[in-house]
């Protein structure tokens, strides 16, 4: 058996448009925040319309992507997964750590719709709309495969230390200032943003070593075009302090 390393060249076939504009607060697995919606836009120099023919017949897809913001930081053979409290090390290949030998990630996502539009310059813009995102805005996508229930969902499979989905840890409430900002938006947009914020914060996006401990720090995250500040008011509750629209540059 030849164990010498080989090199391969991979080009992205598209990019993700996501509500998550920064890495902090992105859920650690897909599907935990169902209100997170976005799309994958395929690159314009491929026959994207032909490539997605028949894809709308599947309810879910596997999305293979690059952890592009982590590649320059390298990787380690052992890491500290959050599900073990961020204190115990295990082999990187026994985790879904973002710091991997080749920086490749994968997520299974529901397909909301598939759309191809011919623009005025005759280029075709193809988008695959998905939900339950756990991907950073701008993430390069290197492949998409249909989710096949009979082969991809295996009865009796074991999941090591991640046997069960994590439960929502925190209840979320909004300050008067945050509620006032929500009320200035259209009702549908306001409701969608509020649900997204609640689902993201209920998962407790703080580092694992800070969870389940008294914490008077103020945290911030960016969702869509809003900066959200929040604080854990107790071990079980988080308060959204403010929601500030991002000023376009």
Automatic annotation (TrEMBL):
Pfam families given in the database record: TrmO_C (PF18389), TrmO_N (PF01980)
Keyword annotations of the record: Methyltransferase, S-adenosyl-L-methionine, Transferase
InterPro entries named among the record's database cross-references: TrmO-like_N, TrmO_C, YaeB-like, YaeB-like_sf, YaeB_N_sf
BP-aspect Gene Ontology terms: methylation
Domain (TsaA-like): residue spans on this chain: 10-156
GO terms of molecular function: tRNA (L-threonylcarbamoyladenosine(37)-C2) methyltransferase activity
Keyword Methyltransferase found: yes
rRNA-binding found in the keyword field: no
Family from the record: Belongs to the tRNA methyltransferase O family.
Protein's recorded name: tRNA (N6-threonylcarbamoyladenosine(37)-N6)-methyltransferase TrmO
